[in-house]
């Protein structure tokens, strides 16, 4: 028997967009939202990956569509958002998740690399958030936006990575600012702040035994997060059970920030 309390996590009839949904955390979030009942539009720079995830969701009995789109391209993103709204009948949830890392010491970093990291991780999230919010306001039924920040937006990190840390620090405070700006429209804006998550994103780090040892040492739980564990927190922030939560940044970090 399904317990009534699970209805607080149900997303039946809701329409969601997940950016960077073709892999890693976004893919796990797309699956979680679809399993909770949402119709999901999977956005990714890599259209083939987005197609594959939409196919997996459909094969599992869920409802999904895929769009190949770069979140830094405002016109393309507007078009993609319109397609998602038209296809699923509105927009209730945005998982604002697409992100990249170009790691390196500040003194050596090329300006174009700094601009690319800020462009995808911060400006891309800003563009997706405001395009989604415009649809949510037009729909008149509020909404929930969940940004993927990072523990690196709340700490200096373990190694030189100033561009990424700055972009995620920006996402943290953008989350608070947009939560206040859109509170009267019934749009909640929150973020998750994961520690190191087992995805292709950090493969170069986790395949180096010394770096992996440093990650374990910095994480009280002594392990990586799984993408599904981050998706659990995203589902909470997207669902009615977090109705009183806005402007919050939820660490999913095995205690990383508790030290
Ligand atoms: N993996 C980690 O350790 C970790 C930790 C904290 C936060 N994060 C954040 O989580 C988010 C997802 O990371 P992940 O680990 O799942 O990475 P991932 O590389 O597994 O997946 C990211 C997806 O985003 C897509 N993408 C990249 N640039 C894009 C763009 N311009 N437009 C649209 N899609 C784009 C990629 O094609 C890819 O499918 C990122 O914002 C990342 O900064 C990751």
Give the arrangement of secondary structure elements.
Layout: E1 15-19, H1 24-35, E2 39-44, H2 47-59, E3 63-68, H3 74-88, E4 93-96, H4 111-139, E5 143-148, H5 162-181, E6 187-194, H6 203-206, H7 209-218, H8 227-238, E7 249-252
Parallel strand pairs: 1-2, 1-4, 2-3, 4-5, 5-6, 6-7
Helix pairs in contact: 1-2, 1-8, 3-4, 4-5
The structure holds nicotinamide-adenine-dinucleotide (NAD).
Question: What percent of residues adopt helix (DSSP H or I)?
Answer: 40-55%
Instruction: Show unreliable segments.
Output: none
Shape: globular
Order of secondary-structure elements: EHEHEHEHEHEHHHE
Radius of gyration: 17 Å
What does the model show?
- The protein has one domain (4-252): 3-Layer(aba) Sandwich (Rossmann fold).
- The chain is 44% helix and 15% strand.
- It has helices spanning 24-35, 47-59, 74-88, 111-139, 162-181, 203-206, 209-218, 227-238; strands spanning 15-19, 39-44, 63-68, 93-96, 143-148, 187-194, 249-252.
- It has a 7-stranded parallel beta sheet, sandwiched between helices.
- α1 (24-35) runs parallel beside α2, α1 (24-35) packs across α8 and α3 (74-88) packs parallel to α4.
- It binds nicotinamide-adenine-dinucleotide.
């Amino acid at each position: 028997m399904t317990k009534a309390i699970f209805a607080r996590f149900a997303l039946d009839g809701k329409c969601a967009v997940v950016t960077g949904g073709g892999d890693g955390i976004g893919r796990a979030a797309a699956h979680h939202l679809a399993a909770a009942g949402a119709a999901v539009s999977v956005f990714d720079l890599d259209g083939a990956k987005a197609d594959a995830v939409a196919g997996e969701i459909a094969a599992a009995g869920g409802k999904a569509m895929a769009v190949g789109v770069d979140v830094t391209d405002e016109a393309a993103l507007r078009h993609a958002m319109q397609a998602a709204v038209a296809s699923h009948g509105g927009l209730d949830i945005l998982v604002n998740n697409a992100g990249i890392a170009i790691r390196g010491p500040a003194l050596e970093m090329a300006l174009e690399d700094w601009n690319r990291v800020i462009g995808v991780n911060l400006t891309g999230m800003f563009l997706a958030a405001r395009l989604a919010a415009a649809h949510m306001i037009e729909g008149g039924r509020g909404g929930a936006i969940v940004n993927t920040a990072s523990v690196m937006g709340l700490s200096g990190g373990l190694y030189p990575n100033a561009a990424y840390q700055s972009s995620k620090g920006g996402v943290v405070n953008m989350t608070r600012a947009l939560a206040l700006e859109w509170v009267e429209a019934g749009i909640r804006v929150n973020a998750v702040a994961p520690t190191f998550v087992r995805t292709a994103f950090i493969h170069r780090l986790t395949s180096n035994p010394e770096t992996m040892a440093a990650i374990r040492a910095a994480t009280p739980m002594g392990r990586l997060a799984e993408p599904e564990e981050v998706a659990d927190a995203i589902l909470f922030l997207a669902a009615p059970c977090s109705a009183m939560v806005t402007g919050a940044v939820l660490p999913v970090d095995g205690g990383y920030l508790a030290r």
